[in-house]
């Protein structure tokens, strides 16, 4: 990221004095989709793209913000009960309020920031923005005493209370806790997590963005969550002595035992979730062994499950994964909630150029526009740059 870009704009829009520069990254998720609300595991990592901000206390009770990307400036009082109207500023306003709720004596400050997280690519630019300012305010006004987990939860609460997005914790968790060369297996139930080495020599990790987002009738995410809950209810009825909170508690034998008591669609959804639980654990073992071929195989299996069992893929994403298979890409799958967005691809160096060229050419010929390509490197979480 461009430190001079932030510094020059900060000096221009404020009083010529400089502050501290902070950075928080976006994230990828290698494997583990639609597992969070089923009490399962996710496998994110921070990337080398994110949000960078220069921040300096201004001696006032006012927060003055400049968005470099939007060329927009706004301000609000630290104790303003309503906050700014601009959506981008509400993320920062929410962090100010949540840090104050944690007992931090937040004072007024000036800040300029920009991001190089591609919008619409499912890399969580909003979580990077929240994490960047939470880390900065912790450093400036609390001497770093607020725990990383409280910074994560402040970001999540900001989404819930001030932006109106009922998100989980994976995005903020990855942005705050990320480490260079490591992915994290997060238990969405207990919040326990473990670092796993991710340094695939001879491979690149790349996102291919279809730039497609299908408009959907109804509530597809809610429908799938309901399917999972339907199966859990059937399990609790069939096995009253065992308490099932989520599908994570179910075995394959128990799922098969209730197959006749649930709809075919609900069974397919649950079948994917149990398979994904197993795949995440298999990838954990493979990463520790440096076995990236198995990692790739499990990525393809996840995509097939998301496409055929969970039914959250779309024609364009399936086509990108087919192109990956044709080009000998080690692993490829849809990344994120579905119905558009990106594939995440683990690609050997020797096939990388041909795969990217093929994906652009074939996708453009079929759908009328080129996909966007974002190589990513697993990098550190929230930190002070200078």
Automatic annotation (TrEMBL):
Residues 285-358 form the GHMP kinase C-terminal domain. It is an enzyme of class 2 (transferase). Residues 91-179 form the GHMP kinase N-terminal domain. GO terms for molecular function: ATP binding; galactokinase activity; metal ion binding. Keywords: ATP-binding, Carbohydrate metabolism, Cytoplasm, Galactose metabolism, Kinase, Magnesium, Metal-binding, Nucleotide-binding, Transferase. It holds the Pfam family GHMP_kinases_C. GO terms for biological process: galactose metabolic process. InterPro entries: Galactokinase (IPR000705), Galactokinase_CS (IPR019741), GalKase_N (IPR019539), GHMP_kinase_C_dom (IPR013750), GHMP_kinase_C_sf (IPR036554), GHMP_kinase_N_dom (IPR006204), GHMP_knse_ATP-bd_CS (IPR006203), Mevalonate/galactokinase (IPR006206). PROSITE patterns: GALACTOKINASE, GHMP_KINASES_ATP. One of its GO terms (cellular component) is cytosol. Its EC number is 2.7.1.6. Residues 9-57 form the Galactokinase N-terminal domain. Gene3D superfamilies: 3.30.230.10, GHMP kinase, C-terminal domain. SUPFAM superfamilies: GHMP Kinase, C-terminal domain, Ribosomal protein S5 domain 2-like. Belongs to the GHMP kinase family. GalK subfamily. This is Galactokinase. It comes from Prevotella lacticifex.
């Amino acid at each position: 990221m461009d430190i001079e870009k932030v510094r020059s704009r900060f000096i221009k829009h404020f009083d010529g004095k400089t502050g501290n520069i902070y950075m928080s990254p976006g994230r990828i998720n290698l494997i583990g989709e639609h597992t969070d609300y089923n009490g399962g595991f996710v496998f994110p990592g921070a990337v080398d793209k994110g949000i960078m901000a220069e921040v300096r206390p201004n001696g006032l009770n006012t927060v003055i913000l400049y968005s470099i990307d939007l060329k927009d400036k706004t301000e609000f009082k630290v104790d303003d009960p309503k906050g700014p109207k601009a959506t981008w500023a509400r993320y920062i306003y929410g962090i100010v309020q949540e840090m104050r709720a944690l007992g931090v004596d937040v004072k007024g400050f000036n800040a300029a920031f920009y991001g190089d997280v591609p919008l619409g690519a499912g890399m969580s630019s909003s979580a990077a923005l929240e994490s960047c300012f939470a880390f900065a305010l912790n450093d400036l006004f609390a001497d770093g005493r607020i725990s990383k987990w409280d910074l994560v939860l402040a970001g999540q609460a900001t989404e819930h209370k001030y932006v109106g997005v009922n998100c989980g914790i994976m995005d903020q968790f990855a942005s705050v806790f990320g480490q260079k060369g490591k992915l994290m297996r997060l238990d969405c139930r207990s919040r326990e997590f473990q670092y796993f080495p991710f340094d695939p020599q001879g491979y690149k990790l790349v996102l291919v963005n279809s730039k497609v987002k299908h408009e959907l009738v109804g509530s597809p995410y809610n429908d799938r969550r309901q399917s999972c809950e339907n199966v859990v209810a059937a399990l609790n009825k069939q096995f009253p002595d065992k308490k099932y909170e989520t599908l994570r508690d179910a075995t394959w034998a128990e799922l098969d035992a209730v197959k006749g008591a649930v709809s075919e669609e609900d069974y397919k959804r649950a079948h994917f979730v149990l398979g994904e639980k197993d795949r995440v654990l298999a990838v954990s073992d493979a990463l520790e062994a440096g076995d990236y071929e198995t990692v790739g195989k499990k990525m393809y299996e996840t995509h097939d499950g998301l496409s055929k069992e969970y039914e959250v893929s779309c024609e364009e994403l399936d086509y990108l994964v087919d192109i990956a298979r044709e080009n000998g890409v080690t692993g490829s799958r849809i990344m994120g909630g579905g119905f558009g967005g990106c594939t995440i691809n683990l690609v050997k160096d020797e096939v990388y150029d041909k795969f990217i060229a093929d994906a652009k050419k074939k996708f453009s010929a079929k759908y009328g526009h080129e996909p966007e390509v974002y190589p990513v490197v697993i990098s550190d979480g929230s930190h002070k740059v200078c």
